[in-house]
Design goal:
Layout lengths: L7 H11 L16 H19 L3 H7 L2 E2 L5 E2 L4 H10 L18 H35 L2 H13 L2 E6 L15 E4 L5 E11 L8 E10 L10 E6 L1 E3 L5 E4 L2 E6 L10 E14 L5 H37 L23 H33 L3 H36 L11 H9 L8 H12 L6 H16 L7 H24 L4 H37 L4 H18 L2 H9 L4 H5 L6
Parallel strand pairs: 3-6, 4-6
Antiparallel strand pairs: 1-2, 4-5, 5-11, 6-7, 7-11, 8-9, 10-11
Helix pairs in contact: 1-2, 1-8, 2-5, 5-6, 5-7, 5-8, 7-8, 7-9, 7-10, 8-9, 8-14, 8-15, 9-10, 9-11, 9-12, 9-14, 11-14, 12-13, 13-14, 13-15, 13-16, 14-15, 14-16
């Protein structure tokens, strides 16, 4: 049975010492996020995950969800009780507005709890996670009446939410959707069509399920310009806020999936179901992107989360399992063999995962903090700069952390040898559960295209230039610090490669767009490496300062420096390979005739 221990100490290090979250205590919601309060919240969240949801992860995977004859879906044993405990603790409303029953704390704190939830039980975490995204879309684009009807009960957890985009013939290209909306006399719409891959589409853990559905109003333009967004509840809500009659929608089937078996992934059929327009006609895609951006950040955190729990179990196994002798001679001659962890290749695996996880955590919390500042900053300049940075880095975070999350789960499984392939140890579940994160909420190839095609050129490249300036300023300010040389020199080299790649795209993508497509995934990962390297350089600076000033916990900071140095020596050189591949362009890639494949 795999185990999990939430990395509270490391989260506190990032929030308090690296990001210095206390400097924002003049902003709405931040004043209550004192260091003591943050530690208390993280500690309680860790307890919920370690003691309540993590023990259900393996059993939930084995049991899965069941579609009953009456159209209801039964979730795995213990999920309903765990969900009730989650709601009673107020976790759904941690970063939600007080106006609708939330606690209005920083979203960065919510992201930290999100990591713990997904490490403990990713299938369970998806139920409340999707609800938070649906609430965000309603708060940003819904009418005041819609906010008052739905937000309080969704924030309290009484009702859950979903996102309905994909159709059998239509995934990324949403312009092909066929679900239609016909106006009713009472101002509502009759929604008809089929949606697939709908996570948490049907279950009985909450009183009501609020579906956000994209559809095309009769007579609307073809393509993405004619898409509208509708709120379609499982049960119609009466004027007094109580539950009314069942809406004309149903779960037609449960998807048979590779992983996340504890989450009810549904085929949803809408047969003239009553829905209400959210926002403006034919502007539904922009409204849905509010939810998708929330979800993409959350999915990036899923990649980090599964990488973390897989790492923890690989470390425990490597310390316990005895195989062979150390290359330098027996480390424990009185034992039959040395522990796996003495072997350099095992340490290569563990250090690789550890270095990516700790930088990935800083990356996720930094991005979440920028999201906070984009909404809560006190002036236009601060909000604009934070929004630029979050917009630029969200596809990078989603794509890189989920790619790395899957790779790391596979590497952690490798530490177990044959036992990693056996269900009993739980590692094969981490591999299966992590795979979907690379696909949903926009496959990672789409994230890369979004970065290169939309985010880079936006506002004349303002966001990427701001990123270059921030990282460059950090390097410049520490160029004479010998203790930082092991971190700033590799970071400087990586930044130079990213700037070179950006210039290459500017020179070659406009004339031939396929050059951008051919380069996009490598460019996304090159950007990700520089971001992770920047996070490590910032963490190394804090660690050096703490050790120089004197600390009660020197080992913690010494290990930060060792991990940072490993990342710079072993991981950052991959920047060169990405640049080399980018510069080859698309010619060879596109030259082969289709029939030759």
């Amino acid at each position: 049975m795999p185990s999990y221990s939430a990395p509270v100490e490391d989260t506190l290090f990032v929030l308090n010492e690296v990001l210095n979250i206390n400097q924002y205590n003049n902003l709405p919601g931040f004043a209550d996020a004192t260091p003591d309060m943050i530690e208390a919240i993280l500690t309680e969240g860790a307890k919920l995950c370690e003691e309540v949801t993590a023990p259900l992860n393996k059993s939930g995977d084995s049991e899965g969800c069941i579609l009953n004859e009456d159209g209801t879906v039964s979730v795995p044993k213990g999920f309903k009780e765990a969900y009730d405990a989650y709601c009673e603790g107020g976790w759904n409303g941690l970063a939600m507005p007080e106006e609708f029953g939330g606690q209005n704390l920083p979203a960065a704190l919510g992201s930290a709890i999100g990591e713990y939830m997904n490490s403990a039980n990713v299938a369970f975490a998806m139920y409340p996670g999707l609800t938070q995204g649906a609430v965000a879309a309603l708060l940003a684009h819904g009418s005041q009446e819609q906010k008052e009807i739905y937000a309080p009960k969704m924030i309290a957890g009484q009702w859950t939410g979903t996102m309905n985009l994909t159709e059998p013939h239509c995934g990324t290209d949403l312009g092909l959707l066929r679900t239609k909306a016909v106006p009713n006399e009472d101002g509502s719409y009759a929604i008809s069509g089929q949606k697939i891959f709908i996570s948490a589409g049907e279950h009985e853990m909450s009183e009501n399920i609020i579906h956000l559905v994209i559809a095309r109003i009769e007579g609307a333009p073809e393509g993405t310009k004619g898409i509208s967004l509708f709120v379609v509840p499982k049960y119609i809500v009466n004027e007094d806020g109580s539950i009314g009659e069942r809406n004309a929608l149903s779960c037609g089937a449960l998807e048979e999936k590779m992983g996340i078996h504890g989450n009810s992934t549904c085929v949803m059929n809408y047969d003239g179901a009553k829905g209400w327009l959210v926002g403006t006609e034919n502007k539904g895609l922009s409204a849905m992107f509010t939810m998708m951006n929330e979800a993409r950040l959350g999915v990036g955190i899923q990649g980090l989360a599964i990488s973390e729990v897989a790492y923890q179990n690989a470390v425990e196994y490597a310390k316990d399992r005895r195989q062979g002798r150390a290359l330098s001679g027996a480390q424990e001659p009185d034992k039959s063999a040395d522990a796996l962890i003495v072997h350099p290749d095992i340490r290569r695996i563990l250090m690789t995962i550890k270095s990516i996880n700790e930088a990935g955590r800083a990356f996720a919390l930094w991005t979440s903090l920028n999201g906070d500042l984009s909404h809560r900053g006190l002036d236009d300049e601060t909000r604009e700069a934070a929004d630029d940075m979050m917009g630029l880095l969200t596809p990078v975070l989603k794509g890189v952390l989920t790619d790395k999350g899957f790779d790391n789960a596979v590497m952690a499984q490798q530490v177990f040898g044959g036992h990693g392939y056996i269900q009993e140890w739980g590692m094969e579940q981490f591999v299966r559960d992590s795979r979907i994160a690379m696909i949903y909420e926009g496959a990672n190839g789409i994230q890369a295209l979004d970065l290169v095609g939309r985010k880079l050129p936006r506002n004349g490249g303002r966001a990427i230039q701001a990123f270059f300036k921030e990282v460059g300023s950090f390097i410049s300010s520490h160029k004479d610090d010998d203790k930082m040389a092991d971190y700033t020199k590799p970071l400087s080299q990586g930044l130079s490669k990213l700037q070179e790649a950006t210039m290459w795209l500017m020179s070659n993508a406009m004339a031939k767009p396929e050059n951008a497509g051919a380069a996009s995934t490598d460019y996304m990962h090159l950007t990700g490496l520089v971001v992770l390297g920047y996070m490590w350089a910032k963490m190394a600076k804090v660690a050096n300062d703490k050790l120089e000033a004197g600390t009660d916990n020197p080992k913690f900071y010494e290990n930060k420096l060792l991990t940072a140095k490993f990342f710079m020596e072993r991981i950052m050189p991959e920047c060169n390979a990405h640049m080399d591949r980018i510069s080859t362009g698309c010619e060879t890639m596109m030259a082969m005739e289709t029939d030759a494949f």
